[in-house]
Amino acid sequence: MGEFKNLKLDVEDEIAVLTISRPAALNALNSETLDELNVALTEIEARDDVKVLILTGGPDKKGNEFKSFVAGADIAEMVNFSAAEARAFGMRASVPFFKLMNMRQVTIAAVNGFALGGGCEISMACDIRIASENASFGQPETGLGIIPGFGGTQRLARLVGMGRAKEMIFTCDSVDAQEAYRIGLVNKVVAKEELMDTAKAMAKKICSKGSYAVSVAKAAINNGYDMDIKNAVEMEANLFGVACSTHDKTEGMTAFLERRAADLTDF
Ligand code: CO8
Predict the structure, then answer these.
(1) Mean pLDDT to the nearest integer, 56-72
(2) Once rounded to an integer, what is the mean pLDDT over residues 112-131?
(3) Rounded-to-10 torsion of CA 40, 55, 120, 185
(4) Whose CA is nearest to atom 45 of ligand 1?
(5) pLDDT value at position 15?
(6) Mean pLDDT, to the nearest integer, of 49-77?
(7) What is the arithmetic mean of pLDDT over 159-176?
(8) Active site includes 121?
(9) Ligand 1 atom closest to Cα of 60?
(10) Does ipTM top 0.95?
């Protein structure tokens, strides 16, 4: 695996934990970190020994592990951007963000503090979000004279509905973890000390299912989301056919009929 300056990668028992680590800037995303993310995600996607990826934020410079998930894109880098540079920066992020969304592994954001701007946006590019009770989510860009540019105007509206998304983006008001749960922005809220264990327990449960089937289900959900229902259901039927032609399908169904545990191995 590549060596990273702003990321830390640990792999154990089919679960990768990728930690964004820029303690001096509350893990803000600069170009270097976006490029490293792209390299890391490309490498992880190619690994057969990783079934689930957990993305989290490292401690701040005082060692506080629950200060910040990601406090946004790096404002110091963006301050002098021309329009062309800003667009290039947005495109630079969209490559790893789409990887998180579409890679064959399931991606879980373990949100351990501030998820602001690009931080909220990168959590929304993941399949699932689990928040520690102190976490907060917001899109403060309009207060800086810009707009969310890493997919926030699109993914937030898709997750919480247009009205709530517009309120958050127009007012810059953050929501706390409980409110994020109430509006469907996060899947679970847990005590700080339970955050990683909860994310790993969910990851472990996902790993215990047919990994290839999970990845095909992920593709079906993602691909169908923006289609009309008729084409989406047809696409699902095609992917059902793909899943049906696997070892795991024969093994999974035979094991059920023989009343034994299935040995699912496809990925
Ligand atoms: N970028 C750069 N540095 C940051 C960022 C950031 N987003 N956030 C925090 N830092 C730095 C601070 O400058 C500070 O550095 P230093 O110690 O050298 O002064 C250090 O991190 C610690 O931060 P604070 O002292 O401010 O810590 P506080 O506990 O007082 O406050 C906050 C924490 C509330 C999180 C505060 O730091 C804050 O408001 N940060 C900025 C949050 C924000 O506005 N995020 C959105 C940024 S814009 C964005 O994400 C756009 C994404 C799309 C771009 C698309 C381009 C095409």
Answers:
(1) 98
(2) 98
(3) 140
(4) 72
(5) 98
(6) 98
(7) 98
(8) yes
(9) 22
(10) yes
- What span, in angstroms and rounded, lies between the C-alpha atoms of 216 and 63? 39
Pocket probe for ligand 1: among 26, 33, 69, 81, the residue whose CB has the most ligand atoms within 8 Å is 26
Q: What is the pLDDT of residue 5?
A: 98
Tell whether the model's pLDDT for residue 1 goes beyond 70: no
Kindly state the helix (H) or strand (E) to which residue 143 belongs, with its residue range. Answer: none
Residue 77 a catalytic site member: no
